[in-house]
Amino acid sequence: MSDSLFSSLPQMSPGWVWLCGAGPGDPGLLTLHAVNALRQADVIVYDALVDDRVLGWANPQAEKVYAGKRGGKPSAKQRDISLRLIALAREGRRVLRLKGGDPFVFGRGGEEAQTLVQHGIPIRIIPGISAGIGGLAYAGVPVTHRDVNQSVTFVTGHDQSGATPSTLDWEGIARGSQVIVIYMGMKHIARIAEALIAGGRALDEPVAVVTSAATDAQQVLETTLGTAAADIARAGLAPPAIICVGRAVLMRQVLDWQSMATGAAPRDLDPLGRGRPAEAG
């Protein structure tokens, strides 16, 4: 990659921590700022969902520190990660904290940034493409479509204890948002679906479950709210997953661009049953 491409981009100074989003999986979804940071960092503290090919673009002399957190598996504690970042910065290292997706979208990046600032460590924030948008786009599901929804709600499927979030008003979300995108929700999908149905959502509401989004291992399950839990179990799907609830899921029938790239035809050119003439200009 040409050095001239990065000549006008920011230089990483010793003692700084850059908190950076690596996107949902595909290395091509990195920003130039992210690649610039990888090329400069002395030490890279990275999460479980960062693709190995992303790390292949790092400064060859950089120390790589794994700090992945995965549900149900041995994981680094958040406090220990934050303290490690502080210690590395105080050693005068150029520190890149590399997180899957976007660091501020259910990624604890805000907590880490706040701790760093409280300890006098200068930071830079580099946004990334969140899996709840980019991962669904790779599956052919647009989170907004003007024939479907004027609202979308992003929620997490578990809280700090690992349980279904008790502070969320699931009934209000069910009534108030046409499309719901759920991060980290596979473990509690039966309970979440039950709460949304109790809030007024239909049993046959379309649902898409996308695992390992934007990677070669991506899988997509199209199901309904009433059968989602059983269908996920039957398919043997495993996290990480993004779950989308709403009629926008129907658009996958015509927008499954990855299948079309292999020669498959769209399943339905008008899945919403309300076609709109193509608009020019």
UniProtKB/TrEMBL annotation:
<keyword id="KW-0169">Cobalamin biosynthesis</keyword>
<dbReference type="InterPro" id="IPR050161">
    <property type="entry name" value="Siro_Cobalamin_biosynth"/>
</dbReference>
<keyword id="KW-0949">S-adenosyl-L-methionine</keyword>
<dbReference type="InterPro" id="IPR006366">
    <property type="entry name" value="CobA/CysG_C"/>
</dbReference>
<feature type="domain" description="Tetrapyrrole methylase">
    <location>
        <begin position="17"/>
        <end position="228"/>
    </location>
</feature>
<comment type="pathway">
    <text>Porphyrin-containing compound metabolism; siroheme biosynthesis; precorrin-2 from uroporphyrinogen III: step 1/1.</text>
</comment>
<keyword id="KW-0808">Transferase</keyword>
<comment type="pathway">
    <text>Cofactor biosynthesis; adenosylcobalamin biosynthesis; precorrin-2 from uroporphyrinogen III: step 1/1.</text>
</comment>
<dbReference type="InterPro" id="IPR003043">
    <property type="entry name" value="Uropor_MeTrfase_CS"/>
</dbReference>
<dbReference type="GO" id="GO:0019354">
    <property type="term" value="P:siroheme biosynthetic process"/>
</dbReference>
<dbReference type="InterPro" id="IPR000878">
    <property type="entry name" value="4pyrrol_Mease"/>
</dbReference>
<dbReference type="InterPro" id="IPR014777">
    <property type="entry name" value="4pyrrole_Mease_sub1"/>
</dbReference>
<dbReference type="InterPro" id="IPR035996">
    <property type="entry name" value="4pyrrol_Methylase_sf"/>
</dbReference>
<dbReference type="GO" id="GO:0004851">
    <property type="term" value="F:uroporphyrin-III C-methyltransferase activity"/>
</dbReference>
<dbReference type="GO" id="GO:0009236">
    <property type="term" value="P:cobalamin biosynthetic process"/>
</dbReference>
<comment type="similarity">
    <text>Belongs to the precorrin methyltransferase family.</text>
</comment>
<protein>
    <recommendedName>
        <fullName>uroporphyrinogen-III C-methyltransferase</fullName>
        <ecNumber>2.1.1.107</ecNumber>
    </recommendedName>
</protein>
<keyword id="KW-0489">Methyltransferase</keyword>
<dbReference type="InterPro" id="IPR014776">
    <property type="entry name" value="4pyrrole_Mease_sub2"/>
</dbReference>
<keyword id="KW-0627">Porphyrin biosynthesis</keyword>
<dbReference type="GO" id="GO:0032259">
    <property type="term" value="P:methylation"/>
</dbReference>
<dbReference type="Pfam" id="PF00590">
    <property type="entry name" value="TP_methylase"/>
</dbReference>
